């Protein structure tokens, strides 16, 4: 016999009530087992989106999602563990240089990553442009690589927070992704179940982010930092700007190439700045505050870990990356300054070129994407290249061209400089 009726749980939240611990434990478990129907969980998710949840409800909901699956035990890894999670953006390749960099400084980095959906890219899609590289590792392989190399980027196994896997797919098609309690519990249940000791959250704000408003991003960051602390994971968050893409590349292989430039001691200033800011936070949270990530980038140690990490998962770090069959260079039609490069518009352009997917089972093109030649604030002369559209399929160019043209603006005035790291919450 059921302890609760789903319809009563839905009514409680619909009417603005507080769910009891028993109701939460039951509904999450029963949904995972298929005893609460999708239409009932959709109604509950919508009620949560509209009514919100108290901190105690969010904590219990997160605990119930963790309890729906396994919790990895990383106690056999001798180094302190630290992970990073970004809420997702455009050109956000930071995980690629950051993971080997932090490992080169003495921590172990268990980075369970995802694939892109819509206008945001996914770390696994980017790494799969490296010939031979394999995203799927079993738990034993994952822990062995963490011990031996100190750095793993791979797909989360089926056993971690299965309630979230099911609920996220449902939220995606019912307009309920944007509920802060559901986003926070979704992200944190996976990170806590993964077993990391420390976690740094990169909470994005701006047109290319989930959270367009800074107040929402702050609330999400605070909620996740509290959840981490309550589960014994040292958690801090950086609030960072996502109104402009990170770096000069948006796509898959093009972002790998840019990450390798950063590991070689070069790369765009904003990518280097954010990589170092997150590395310092991860190392401090892991109890290694004296490590010097800037030096590990300069002296090649981070690059050495990158090469070992890629090889450990079957990839060839020296193999040429895929190149696009079709490249269109778009040039400035006047003198002036680049006044805006809108992250959302460029993310959509890269998606239209084939770099992203509309449904989670769609394939992505490794070579497709947008390469910027100028960033906001850069001066340009009429005829200078502004950006390139790259694709395997020329029929994709017109739609991408229209999106990119609306996203990249040239005007007579240099725009104000805005900070990349907006705040630290923790
Ligand atoms: N990423 C997640 O893992 N979950 C969400 O709900 C939103 C973004």
TrEMBL record:
Residues in Pyrimidine nucleoside phosphorylase C-terminal domain copies: 337-411
Keyword Transmembrane: no
Regions crossing the membrane: none
GO MF terms, alphabetically ordered: thymidine phosphorylase activity
InterPro entries: Glycosyl_Trfase_fam3, Glycosyl_Trfase_fam3_N_dom, Glycosyl_Trfase_fam3_N_dom_sf, Nuc_phospho_transferase, PYNP-like_C_sf, PYNP_C, Pyrmidine_PPas_bac/euk, Pyrmidine_PPase_CS
EC number(s) reported in the record: 2.4.2.4
Keyword Glycosyltransferase in record: yes
Record key words, sorted: Glycosyltransferase, Transferase
Alphabetized PANTHER family for the sequence: THYMIDINE PHOSPHORYLASE (PTHR10515)
NCBIfam families referenced in this protein's UniProt entry, alphabetically: PRK05820.1, Y_phosphoryl
Homology family: Belongs to the thymidine/pyrimidine-nucleoside phosphorylase family.
Quaternary organization: Homodimer.
Protein name: Thymidine phosphorylase
């Amino acid at each position: 016999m059921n302890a609760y009726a789903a319809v009563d749980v839905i009514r409680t939240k619909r009417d603005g009530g507080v769910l009891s611990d028993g109701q939460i434990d039951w509904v999450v478990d029963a949904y995972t087992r298929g005893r609460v129907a999708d239409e009932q969980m959709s109604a509950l998710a919508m009620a949560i989106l509209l009514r919100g949840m108290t901190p105690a409800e969010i904590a219990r909901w997160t605990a119930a999602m963790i309890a729906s699956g396994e919790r990895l035990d990383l106690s056999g890894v001798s180094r302190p563990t630290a992970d990073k999670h970004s809420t997702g953006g455009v050109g956000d390749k930071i995980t690629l240089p950051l993971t080997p960099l932090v490992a080169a400084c003495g921590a172990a980095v268990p980075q369970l990553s995802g694939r892109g959906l819509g206008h945001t890219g996914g770390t696994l899609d980017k790494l799969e442009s490296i010939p031979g590289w394999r995203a799927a590792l079993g738990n034993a392989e994952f822990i062995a690589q963490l011990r031996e190399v100190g750095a793993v980027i791979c797909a989360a196994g089926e056993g971690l927070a299965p309630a979230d896997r099911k609920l996220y797919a449902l939220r995606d098609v019912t307009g309920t992704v944007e509920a802060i309690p559901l986003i926070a519990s979704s992200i944190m249940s996976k990170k806590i179940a993964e077993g990391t000791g420390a976690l740094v959250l990169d909470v994005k704000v701006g047109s290319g982010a989930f959270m367009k408003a800074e107040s929402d991003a702050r609330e999400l960051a605070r909620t996740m930092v509290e959840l981490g602390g309550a589960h014994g994971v040292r958690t801090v968050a950086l609030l960072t700007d996502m109104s402009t893409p990170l770096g000069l590349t948006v796509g898959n292989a093009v972002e790998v190439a840019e990450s390798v430039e950063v590991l070689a001691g070069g790369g765009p200033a904003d990518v280097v700045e954010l990589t170092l800011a997150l590395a310092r936070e991860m190392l401090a949270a892991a109890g290694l505050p004296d490590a010097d990530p800037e030096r590990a980038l300069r002296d090649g140690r981070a690059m050495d870990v990158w090469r070992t990490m890629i090889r450990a998962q079957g990839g060839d770090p020296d193999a040429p990356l895929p190149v696009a069959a079709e490249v269109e260079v778009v040039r400035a039609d006047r003198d002036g300054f680049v006044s805006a490069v809108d992250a959302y518009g460029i993310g959509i352009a890269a998606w239209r070129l084939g770099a992203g997917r509309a449904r989670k089972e769609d394939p992505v093109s490794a070579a497709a994407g947008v390469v910027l030649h100028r960033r906001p604030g850069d001066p340009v002369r009429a005829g200078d290249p502004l950006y390139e559209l790259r694709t395997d399929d020329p029929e994709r160019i017109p739609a991408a061209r229209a999106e990119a043209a609306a996203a990249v603006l040239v005007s007579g005035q240099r725009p104000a400089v805005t900070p990349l790291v907006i705040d630290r919450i923790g």
